Amino acid sequence: MDTFKRLKSFYWPYRKYFYWSIITLIFVSSITVIYPIVLQFTIDEIIINGEYKWVPYVAIGFILIMAVKGAATYCHQYFGDLFGIRSVYQLRESLYEKLQFLPFRYYDNAKTGDLMSRLTADVEGFRFFLSFGFSQLIHFVLIVSFSLSVMFFYSIPLALITLCMLPFLAIIVYKFDKEVHPAFRGIRKSMANLNTKVQENISGINTVKSLSREDFEIGKFDTSNEDYKSQFLHTSHIWARYFPIMELIGNLSVVLLLAYGGYLVIRGDLTAGELVAFFSLVWYIMGPIMNLGFIMNTFSQSKASGERLLEILDEPLEMENEDRNVTVTRFEGEVTFDHVTHRYKNEKKDALQQVSFSVKPGQTIGLIGATGSGKTSITQLLSRFYEPHSGTIFIDGKPLQEYSLRTLRKNIGTVLQESFLFSSTIKDNISYGNPHANMELIIDAAKRAQAHDFIMELPDGYDTVLGERGLGLSGGQKQRISIARAILINPTILILDDATSAVDMDTEFKIQQALKEVMKGRTTFIIAHRISSLKHADEILVLDGGSVEERGTHEELIHLEAGAYRRIYDIQYKDKDKVFQHTRLKGVRG
């Protein structure tokens, strides 16, 4: 029950609905036990004694009892569902809110399909037990208690025989729960893995089709589907082993009661009506006890679901703090890295090693180097998406930890290499970071990002609704909208992470010209593989293996004959010059 105790804060505020559900359940259980009493009275007092004049009254009374029970059952189910739905509404809100504030390191290993499974199937599994399983457990206790009380009133020996069977059933149920709980946890994990495979396949369907890997993907899905089937069959085998034993014990107790009860009727110690009522009560006990396996099954599923939900809720949040001794809401833009070293989780090598540099407000810094050299790591540490293992990062002379995450990120505009757009209008996507911006500011940002012209060519202009992840736009168009989104928040520090990689050279030149105006007065970090994107930078850092190997302006670096920057320059420009000269000579000869 530890799982339910830890999740208590979500359902306990709505306990009044649970209490009303239990109060009405008490009515339902007590009225249910009245049926055998009415049956006993009908047999002994009316049929055997021939007092048929009481039949209409008994029938009317029975109908009234049924009507009261029906109303009580309705209220019980209504309040039970209300209790469960209200509880998981808050739980689902908390889970989604937690996902918004979990650090990048969590998503480095998290799988989308698994998270979706937790927020849907696992939340629903937990809700089902709150709405139905809890009350069924209490119903079991009530109906058994009420039935045994009436049975002891009718016949103490028969009641004791019935009572002797209960410990055997309890042992079977306990063993069943011990085996079925891990089995259901395996089902939940297998289902999450299955969801992940489907989500990845749908997200990457273009790649799958372009490489004709449909059969391979079907094979991967079959493997996950086979595992899901195996987990379910394993659980079914557990059910198949235990439920016949439960039924056997229940039926044996009925046979014993029938034999001994018949003997008591023959002796005159028990009336025929009491024996019939007693057997009705026995089934009122045996039914819930045999149904206890289903209740424990529901409990095990909800416990497994609750454990998976707690894994999200227990995950540490980003290292947030309120602004300490800092009242500024807008930065000047001075950035300093002081011997910063960083290593990602589960990685053996440092992503950054003793990186140090300083940037004055308004300067533009270019970052270039091979893939994995640490370019993006610098900008991610600057935004506190990760915490450095050692060293300190300063903004305006104060460590990053002096600022709250909200203050920090409101002053940093980032355009990531992989542009992500929401399934909404273009206008909403551009104004995502500044939802109160008017249309004039949105259009101005789009023009600066060279996005306005193609937007106006779309059927609904800025009100055009995009597909999932910006489906319907080219990579370059999505990047330009992302740039407009960053421009609109008017950041002090601007980060362009290979932001023009998906556009052609002509569009890149136009964007760069526009960004020159945008970058005025802003500290800008430009990550790029094209030297043409970095030539205008005030300083360029050349990274290799997480260290700053070279630094200087474009003119300074290309004069380092044996330098890494010069090699990149030669690859990108010298070969092009040769091709250009060859083409020109060929044209002259022609």
What attributes does this structure have?
single chain, 590 residues, alpha/beta, ABC transporter transmembrane region fold, Rossmann fold, six-stranded mixed β-sheet, four-stranded antiparallel β-sheet, 10 strands, elongated, disordered C terminus
* Class per helix and strand makeup: alpha/beta
- Low-confidence runs (pLDDT<50, min 5 residues)? 577-590
Report Rg. Answer: 36 Å
Q: What helical percentage do the residues reach?
A: 55-70%
Q: What name goes with the CATH superfamily of the domain at 2-313?
A: ABC transporter type 1, transmembrane domain
Mean pLDDT: 82
The oligomeric state of the chains shown is single chain
Q: Estimate what percentage of residues fall within beta strands.
A: 5-15%
| Number of H- or I-type helical stretches | 19
Give the end-to-end Cα distance, rounded to a whole number of Å.
Answer: 88 Å
CATH architecture of the domain at 2-313: Up-down Bundle
For the record, what CATH class of the domain at 2-313 applies?
A: Mainly Alpha
Characterize the largest beta sheet: strand count, sense, and whether it forms a barrel: 6 strands, mixed
Strand order of the largest sheet: 6-7-8-3-9-10
**Element-by-element helix/strand order:** HHHHHHHHHHEEEHEEHEHHHHEHEEEHH
**CATH fold-type name of the domain at 2-313:** ABC transporter transmembrane region fold
- Principal-axis shape: elongated
| Count of distinct strands | 10
